[in-house]
Amino acid sequence: MSRLSRLFEKFRPAAVKHDQPGAGHSEIRWMLIGLGNPGEQYRRSRHNLGFMTVRRFAARYNSELSRRKFNGCYAEIRTDAGNAIVVAPQTFYNRSGDCASAMLGYYKVPPERLIVIHDEMDLPERQLRLKRGGGDAGNRGVRSIADALGTVDFIRVRIGIAHPGRSQGSIDYLLQPLTDEEARLLDPVFDRAGDAVLAVMRDGLDRARAIYNQRV
After folding, report:
1. Domains of the chain, with CATH numbers?
2. Average pLDDT over residues 94-102
3. Any idea which residues carry the catalytic annotation?
């Protein structure tokens, strides 16, 4: 039995409980996971752009990530591109895979229908790039998910934050709160990232990349 098969089998007994998708819930076709760290001190940090994006996305559908399962805050939403679980893992960034693998196994969502939204220092500020698989470029949250699933065959929506330069260490840069001006400039990026997610779900990755991988 493959690693992913064992993962899904692990959660099969729990799937018959009252909140299993097939028992009173519509079929879940996608899982969206935003990366970030729990806690008020990290709420406005660059490393929490994934959290900010999935919360904004859920709000489009008058929903909040208020339910909890497998060390994650989540919501179930219905879109015209399919129903989805939207998740903000509460395991801290570098252990995001713990929550991701458990949620995917429980809801029987294959990795190819997982969309991970995260910050990316290798991209210019506020630029989006969509891709499937590939290296993690040192992003330990992405690495944690790949290790937990045993595959890199999931989609990533990367939000550029650029490198801090020599004047500041990367950890401080990632974790310090955004200024009001930085937050203002980033605000429309969350909506654009949400649009990109919907485009992937509705039209496929290749068509979405043709639109959202362009500089704006």
Report:
1. 3-15+27-212 (3.40.50.1470)
2. 98
3. 47
